[in-house]
Design goal:
single chain; 304 residues; mainly alpha; Serine Threonine Protein Phosphatase 5, Tetratricopeptide repeat; 61% helix
Length: 304
């Protein structure tokens, strides 16, 4: 299966539901209260663009709502001191506040990433998700991108719904440095949906709508992915062999090798239980002309 490239940039963020004063301090808050920022390895992000960062900021704003009743009770400067003493929740809040420029803290991405790293390394789930979203954005080196997927995986395995959603989309689209893997995407999709989070359900609904629209507009790779979902009944799509054949055919007619092979295999096995070897041979031949060895072997088998 080829990567579904256009959707790779659509890692949807949760809707922001908080409003906090956005002011900038004249010097780093940690310096004001005599707290040292953790010395963690992070990439140089001085040139990082706000448009690229916005999905992460939306995620972090929403995470702050989830801890509003507990961790945010640690007021400044008590918050900074608790963070310096190793409180992972306080470290996350310090990182989040610096990332957003909230509560009088200066907006400093390097400081933010150091606090978030310290929190994530202690296993604080929201920090793991924030780190995962940041590094898996793909704007840094492959090493950092892979590290982002590792952070998301750690949080997802711990049951964090947003991390499960992000991983699901990454494997669905082949984004964030991972190969497209629909089985893995489906695994995380099911885990995320099982959380019964209405926001996530809406996000998945929107994702399916985007896929359908792109398929209708003629994106061959999207058509192939959509066809596979219909054929196997994945990602909330009902199993539908007729729809699968329709979308595989559209992608195959555009020359997409994976679609040609899949379509040939379906016709060989039979649509609604009725094999059509002429159509199977037609599409195996198309695939074979592109050098597909499996298609060549299939032709030898069928033409005996």
């Amino acid at each position: 299966m080829m990567k579904y490239t256009r959707l790779s940039v659509v890692l949807l963020a949760l809707t922001a539901v908080v409003s906090v004063a956005d002011t900038v301090a004249t010097r780093p808050f940690a310096e004001q209260v005599g707290v040292s920022v953790p010395d963690c390895k992070v990439p140089d992000i001085e040139e990082f663009q706000m448009t690229e960062l916005e999905p992460l900021l939306e995620q972090v704003r929403d995470m702050l709502v989830g801890i509003k009743e507990d961790q945010q009770k640690l007021k400044m400067p008590a918050m900074a001191k608790a963070a310096a003493e190793g409180n992972s929740g306080a470290q996350f809040v310090m990182g989040a506040m610096h990332l957003l420029g909230y509560a009088g803290l200066e907006k400093d991405y390097n400081v933010a990433l150091r606090w978030l790293t310290a929190s994530a390394e202690k296993g604080y789930a929201d920090a793991c998700v924030a780190m995962g979203c940041f590094y898996s954005s793909g704007v840094f080196s492959r090493w950092w991108t892979r590290k982002g997927i590792n952070w998301l995986t750690a949080a997802a395995e711990g049951g964090h719904a947003v991390a499960q959603y992000q991983l699901s989309v990454a494997y669905l689209t082949g984004a964030a440095g991972v190969e497209q893997d629909l089985a893995t995407a489906e695994k995380w999709y099911k885990k995320a949906v099982a959380q019964n989070d209405e926001k996530l359900k809406l996000m998945f609904d929107r994702l399916r709508s985007i896929m359908m629209e792109e398929a209708k507009q003629g994106e061959a790779e999207t058509q192939c992915t959509l066809a596979t979902m219909y054929y196997l009944g994945l990602y909330g799509f009902e199993e539908n062999e007729v729809e699968a054949v329709k979308w595989f055919t559209r992608a195959a007619e555009k020359g997409l090798l994976d679609a040609q092979v899949s379509l040939a295999e379906i016709y060989e096995a039979g649509v609604n239980g009725k094999p059509d070897l002429d159509k199977a041979i037609h599409w195996y031949t198309k695939a074979a002309t592109q050098g597909d060895a499996d298609a060549e072997d299939a032709l030898k088998r069928l033409e005996k």
